[in-house]
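Sequence in, structure out. Go.
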Amino acid sequence: MKQDEIPIFFTVDESYAPYLDCAIRSMQENASKSHTYQIIVLHEDLTEESQEKLSATVKPPFQIRFLEMEGAKRKYRLTVKDKLAGITDRAENRLRCDYFTLTIYFRLFIADLFPEYDKGIYLDSDIVVPGDISQLFQTELGDNIIAACADRSITPVPELVEYVEQAVGVPIDRYINSGILVMNLKKMREVGFSGHFLHLLQTYHFDCLAPDQDYFNAMCNGKIVYLDESWDAMPPEGGGGTGTTLEHPNLIHYNLFQKPWCYDNIPYADYFWRYAEGSPFYGDIVRHKETYSEEQKLSDRTCLSNMVRKGPEVCKQPITFRKMNEKGERIRVC
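Output:
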């Protein structure tokens, strides 16, 4: 086991390589140099060119390695890709109700893929890290499965609150965002986390607004350490969220549609552009923003509206996390 090394996991495809580069740049600049860090990128279809650019960004005490999910199957003799083949482009498996990507599920298998680690950090790629990431790693997990922040972005939306409490079965102030996690990998292996996830998925096909996130919430409920909100500071969504920004965020998460590479006047955007300007992907990022069309913006608004509309509809379905739990089915992993 590598207790002296801090493993930091990302899951990406090619479209998110530029934003991963910005995340890495910010993290490196602000991390304590008293530790060593291993960035591990689980990916699907990340080009060699992008891997080379990302590798060039990384400087000691950081290191980086890439693992394509098909390669994970060969290297670790785990049939992760085969298991993921059962997660198809069904409506209940779509992120934000509008698109399907397997990469959001990769984090559920980290404990199995990396038995050399007892603890690790998982981060989404749409972030920057003004704080010291080693402090996040020091979070005491005890017998809990994960540490995460409560997802404050949905609390002003009654339809989404109803969904969380009535369908997922978690009090709204206990519902976490799965984009930033400290993971008790040893505990996840002990309780058979990935196997239980696959059992739930294949048995019930729960309809979800945030597929992997809702599984984390339902399965880990009661076994979660709640982080200070500064470790998952989100721009208020369309005036939602807390309506305020934090003065000293440790980690900024451009969640859902609040992306500074798509829109102007996004809270915390200055943090992102500070690191983007030094990135080899800077031209790509600027072009993406300049060409982000009105049609794409309309699609974003439509998707957000669909999420809100869908929440109460899911609550009425005969199979939800909460209803199965009330019938005595085992939803929590432990």
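Check: The first helix runs from residue 17 to 30. Residues 146 and 224 are 5 Å apart (CA to CA).
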